[in-house]
Amino acid sequence: MVAEPLRDTGAPASAEEESGYHGGPEMTLLEHLKELRYRVMVSGLAVLIGVIVCFYFWETILGWMVAPARERVEDFRVSSFSPTDRIGIIVKIGLYGGVILASPVVIYQMMAFILPGLTPKERRILLPGIVGGAAFLLAGMAFAYWVILPASLGFLLELGSDEIENVIGIKQYVDFVTRIVFWVGVSFELPMVLALAAKLGLVRARQLLGFWRYAVIVVFIIAAVVTPTPDPVTQTFVAGPLLGLYFIGILMAWAVQPKRKQPAGPGR
Q1: Alpha-carbon separation of residue 195 from 183, 198, 265 (angstroms)
Q2: pTM of the model
Q3: How many helices and strands in the chain, by DSSP H and E?
Q4: Tens of pLDDT, residues 166-208
Q5: Coil, strand, or helix at residue 5?
Q6: Rounded distance, CA 81 to CA 75, Å?
Q7: How far apart are CA 255 and CA 198, in angstroms?
């Protein structure tokens, strides 16, 4: 006797079907821990290789960091005020640069571990969020390096009398550059944060638009925190793009926010 194939009865989908599970073998806790160990080891190895590469090319990387200042002050040089300044800067460049170089591998390993346990709906939210977040982060870091740093350094280094000679410590200069580039890059995540909040139903685009007066104040506070100097020029160079990104975030929120259901008319 041959069993008849199952027919679609119109019953609602089960929890397994909604979660994206299709009857594949489930991993035990020990298997999850082994996979996590593998992902962490691969990520750690990638960071180590990136650190070694940045240690080897630290002078080239330092030259890139000094380049924005030399655009405005031709003979600009950094100075060492302590016997440990040089080794401290080499270590900092190696660690920061290694993490940046290895970040694609680290993100891939993290996603390879997380994605199999997510539902299709969660994947549709997470994947574009990661790609968009990385794009805005890189755009913010590039904007800080090619626009904000030359303008702010030109203002700060040329301010005052000609009797003042620029003698900048290497530690202070590298801290200044890394702080601006990193935090401006992070602040460029604002549109993705607003879009994600709208996608989750926490806010609506109309609410964000009505909040714009308060957003101006918040943006200037963020700019004051991000910039390590009290000068208004650097803060304005940071706050201006952030305001533009806020309105871009409103458009993105409007595009991804859940559509409200229209009330049913009479007789429906």
Answers
A1: 20, 5, 31
A2: 0.77
A3: 11, 2
A4: 888 999 999 999 989 998 888 899 999 999 889 888 899 999 9
A5: coil
A6: 19
A7: 9
